[in-house]
Amino acid sequence: MVTIPSTPERLLPAANPTTLLDPAGRAVPGDGPDLPDADVLLALYRMMVLGRRFDTQATALTKQGRLAVYPSARGQEACQIGAVLALRPQDWLFPTYRDSMAVTARGVDPVQVLTLLRGDWHSGYDPYQHRVAPQCTPLATNTLHAVGLAHAATIKGEDTVALVMLGDGATSEGDTHAALNFAAVWKSPVVFLIQNNGYAISVPLAKQTAAPSLAHKGIGYGIPATVVDGNDAAAVYAVVRRAVTSAAAGAGPVLIEALTYRVEAHTNADDATRYRSQDEVDGWLGRDPVTRLRNHLRDRGLLDEAAIAKTDAEAEAQAAALRQRMTTDTRHDPDDLFRYVYAEPTPELRRQQRELAVELGQAQGGRGAG
Amino acid sequence: MTAIAEHYRGLAAGSAVTMASALNQALSDALTEDDSVLVFGEDVATLGGVFRITDGLAASFGQTRVFDTPLSESGIVGTAIGMAMNGLRPVVEMQFDAFAYPAFEQITSHLAKLRNRTKGRVELPIVIRIPYGGGIGGVEHHCDSSEAYYTHTPGLRVVTPGTPADAYVLLRQAISSPDPVIFLEPKRRYWSKETVSEHHGIAMDRALVRRPGTDVTLIAYGGAVATALEAAEAAEEDGRSAEVIDLRSLSPFDDETVTASVKRTGRAIVVHEASRFCGYGAEVAARLSEQCFHYLEAPILRVAGFDIPYPPPSLEEYHLPSVDRILDAIDRLQWQETAALVKVAS
After folding, report:
1. Distance of alpha carbon B99 from alpha carbon B42, whole angstroms
2. Bridge partner residues of B183 (DSSP)
3. Does B40 lie at the interface with A, CB-CB under 8 angstroms?
4. How far apart are CA A166 and CA A195, in angstroms?
5. Which of A90, A97, A155, A350 to mutate to probe the B interface, most B CBs <10 Å?
6. Catalytic-residue membership of A130
7. I need a labelling partner for A353 at 20 to 30 A (CA). Which of A224, A333, B221, B242 fits?
């Protein structure tokens, strides 16, 4: 007779999200991971302040017409920064379009990050320099790239973990299913981080899934899963760090659901008042991740007003530098349209490149004659 | 070119091979010569593939380099992209043409675009092998000619062999290519045999004149090449000399070879199994009318599948381009009208 193995409890998320700091910043005792060291907490705080300022600056740049569009991650700083700081240099990050803050935290030049949203090119940075894949716009497709890269690392005997970010909406896509399944079967060193920010543009989680939590999806694949307070940077860092360590040790993939909230609309082009109340937004503003960690560090005497002001000034200086660099217009080379489609342009592409050059030459000639 | 010739040594001149065994040999030689080559897909390892193209490879190279995946075409292509980003050269199999559609987003949005997206920083040397086309009595979803979906996608190379020896050469070239290649295998020709001759030394993106002729150019690829050659033989008996071009590379298209032929013959027919409307032949006809207009003696014709979903096995003979249908098309190439015009002009 065939028997179904009893439910492996270790695969199920705990009843409560892992929280290390409560919304007021007080340490929460529990059986979760240890609170990170003070230097880590200070680094998380500094990077969150810089990240938020980058994010608000990017939103401001859309209003000045310097960015075509910007999907903000304000309110999700704990996820963006906590996850990235938990990675080792040899690990890879597979971000989505909403994870610009995470990409800059990994070390990518912010102007290069904004190349996509400025409309200058589809991606502006070298993925191999900081081990950050191009920000992915089609939902969930990057989950499979992360699994493939991690599996290749296993084949090559490299100590590399791939962390892939996805949103609550992306969990409904088929590629998420395939990626979780492939990673589990192959025992690939992948960390899946779902930033559950409550909405897929306008569609709330309740219309996205009937699962008790998104982390509950893990057990169906044989993947251990954790729910973490996504506005608690200390907890996100600790949970991702533990997952990276476990994956690197050969224990296979880990699924993490971070509960957070998208404070801004989907993008600057979206109107969030059409689908959610200000009361709801205000409630989440009271759980702000930056304030929470600042209160904690201040209460412990690890951060004084001078240090807070210093970090704020650093953030302002970075924002000013970004503003300055974004005011210069980029020179665009129409030949770039043809250069990178294949390793070598095909004869047909060379012909089309010449067609465009002739067209542009005539246009210039026409203006000169007039 | 030297590298291609060396690759070609995997097939001994004078031996008779089937397309299936030539493909198997190409995979085996690529796995031997380059440690970064991987072969994976559904049923490719233990079983050796439903068409046995990967037969014995897992036993020879181990299940780390030749492996079965979970059943998800998007998963296969998506993970291949990640592996290629990390320095490997995946050769993946889609079990059948129509079963590749779940991978369409990964192919069109990422495989085809990542090089361009990253200004050449990310290279994806991936080969997607797809058995395609009909003629084997397959039930629905097993006989599609899906080439136009891929040729319409910039960033992909699309090739399809018409003969066993060429299957070997093209697959070796595809695996060596720095660009992603959709490798379409005409499954009805898997068991056709050919005696291997000396390597023709032709690059992957060039077409090949399979049979020289002077009156009309038959342009074919994949499974239709053999049909076109047969039609050319029959036309010869009717006093018409047909040149047969095997395109090999559907994208990029070898304008040079094809237009040179059509400028000589003045007449052209494109033959393919795929539906006619917006099919690959439409592009060929458009290019030829743009580049050979003053050389043409008659409109360019298409002998193609009807604009219907692929029919069930008992009806497929009515759908597939046949020798008779090609001969009928040759007859419709306005031979009398042109002769009359010449008479009037003189």
Report:
1. 11
2. B129, B159
3. no
4. 6
5. A155
6. no
7. B221
Q: A355 in contact with B at a CB cutoff of 8 Å? A: no
Q: Are strands B16-18 and B193-195 parallel, antiparallel or unpaired?
A: antiparallel
Burial degree of A64 (CB within 10 A; 0-12, 13-18, 19+): exposed
Confidence of residue A370 (pLDDT cuts 50, 70, 90): very low
**C-alpha dist (Å) from residue B81 to A161, B109, B114, B269:** 16, 11, 9, 38
In chain B, which segments carry CATH 3.40.50.970?
A: 14-195
Give the Å distances, CA to CA, from B14 to A221, B2, B9, B11, B196.
52, 21, 12, 9, 5
Say if strands A199-200 and A190-196 run parallel, antiparallel, or are unpaired: unpaired
Q: How far apart are CA B177 and CA A291, in angstroms?
A: 53
ipTM reported for the complex, 2 dp: 0.96
Domain B14-195 has CATH 3.30.30.10: no
CATH architecture of B208-336: 3-Layer(aba) Sandwich (3.40)
In tens, the pLDDT along B115-166 reads 999 999 999 999 999 999 999 999 999 999 999 999 999 999 999 999 999 9
CATH 3.40.50.920: which residues of chain B? 208-336
Tell me which residue of A75, A72, A77 sits closest to A59, measured CA to CA: A72
Strand partners, B158: B182, B251
B-chain residues within 8 Å CB-CB of A133?
85
DSSP states of A55-112: HHHHHHHHHTTSSS-----TT-HHHHHHHHHTS-TT-EEE-BTT-HHHHHHTT--HHH
**pLDDT, tens only, A57-72:** 999 999 999 999 999 9
